[in-house]
């Protein structure tokens, strides 16, 4: 059976495209690998796959008895539930080092850059010296534009920009910023979507000081898009919090044009927001100017506040 | 203060030389880094440093408040005791993925090869494209010869051989096997060494199913060298076991010419050896033919036997 390659739960564009791109690289290296995904495609990812002519990878949530590889995470909470019942072969990531362990040596490559696509670009080009197929380059470029919010995110590094420029050339995309805005608009699509689906569109659970803390994020070209939905979103966040025995559920409403985030908080301890960001909640939310990255600007201060 | 780079506790040649080689690479990349070590040099490592003109790196066992990088391990039990009081910046390794986690994204590169020196060779040559200084190449070559037991170990891969050949050229070592035998003889030096020091010469504690299991290894050109010392070694192993509240302490007496290991076992559950290796202890020891690698042939079956 083929080695299955999976991004994290509630997959985003990076997780889905990295699974495809890493599978292509593995095949070039002689490994029989196929991409998978742990959940539904968001509208941005669907647009990206359509543009470059890819079908949605197979939905896989069970890796027991299978060989598998992970991209875009190394956290147990974001891996398939029975991750320890299969054989993990490799990890490629750009996040903090998570709590997945193995019994045998494996390939694990993480770099502190803005996107798994950038790490994969270096693996293709520098480490394994394999040509990147045109369509695969398009996927990796799209992931970089998405994860770095068109290079505006605090997570964006010079390596991400350099990789994006090289990939745009290979993919034959002459105006990558225009393509990035098209993606951002697709990502902003909220009309007619159930609040629950919006919360889980780009959602991750974290272990913070022994407590489960969920953080969702919606990247929007304008917060006006969700102005009428906040009550419904908040009510659903309270449900998600209660169901999962979570300490807190946060939803980042990130305005990619104004470059900041309105943070909605359903939490057992509202003081934790003040402790983490130096700004207290006003009712159920607070505006965090300049905050666009969950990974770099939300998770570390929250983990500190939780004493993790 | 400089970034300190450390291998594992009870450092071997790979841990010490990888700290030096990775520090040189970091300096070439503009990072102010210095190598350190967590313990005393073994006779082989002392010989290697002398041959290539290096002093012993600084002894560092406390990283609180310091920036640091780890080489040759990613396990909490092998890291400095207060690893979580400093800021971990990078990991380069070739073992199983351990339980060290971070709050921020960092560089983490592990590959399933026989030696950290081989991973560093790829980082120098392929990823960062920096020239390897002649003496650094000598260190890295020596680590590969040591860790792969002159390419005989089950952990040895074609990548290790290719790296060793390239490094021998850079270092100007025309007969690397002769140099490897010279190192092996130095590693075999046991005369006049206290049993405790022999146990800890190349020793690691592991968490196996919640129990602490220590595994030391002596690589010897002949088991005759320790024939008269087994009673004393065993008595000391029992002490080490009691002191550390360990479930088991194993000592691998590895005959690198006969390519096998006499395993001494001080354990609360002698049956675990049969369970792991399909061969029961005869008294306090058993011969395991073909077993030379702790990482690949001891740890995985033991972890399985412990249900970890």
UniProtKB/TrEMBL annotation, chains A, B:
<dbReference type="InterPro" id="IPR038222">
    <property type="entry name" value="DHHA2_dom_sf"/>
</dbReference>
<dbReference type="GO" id="GO:0046872">
    <property type="term" value="F:metal ion binding"/>
</dbReference>
<dbReference type="InterPro" id="IPR001667">
    <property type="entry name" value="DDH_dom"/>
</dbReference>
<protein>
    <recommendedName>
        <fullName>inorganic diphosphatase</fullName>
        <ecNumber>3.6.1.1</ecNumber>
    </recommendedName>
</protein>
<dbReference type="Pfam" id="PF01368">
    <property type="entry name" value="DHH"/>
</dbReference>
<dbReference type="Pfam" id="PF02833">
    <property type="entry name" value="DHHA2"/>
</dbReference>
<dbReference type="InterPro" id="IPR004097">
    <property type="entry name" value="DHHA2"/>
</dbReference>
<dbReference type="GO" id="GO:0005737">
    <property type="term" value="C:cytoplasm"/>
</dbReference>
<keyword id="KW-0464">Manganese</keyword>
<dbReference type="InterPro" id="IPR038763">
    <property type="entry name" value="DHH_sf"/>
</dbReference>
<dbReference type="GO" id="GO:0004427">
    <property type="term" value="F:inorganic diphosphate phosphatase activity"/>
</dbReference>
<keyword id="KW-0479">Metal-binding</keyword>
<keyword id="KW-0378">Hydrolase</keyword>
<feature type="domain" description="DHHA2">
    <location>
        <begin position="180"/>
        <end position="306"/>
    </location>
</feature>
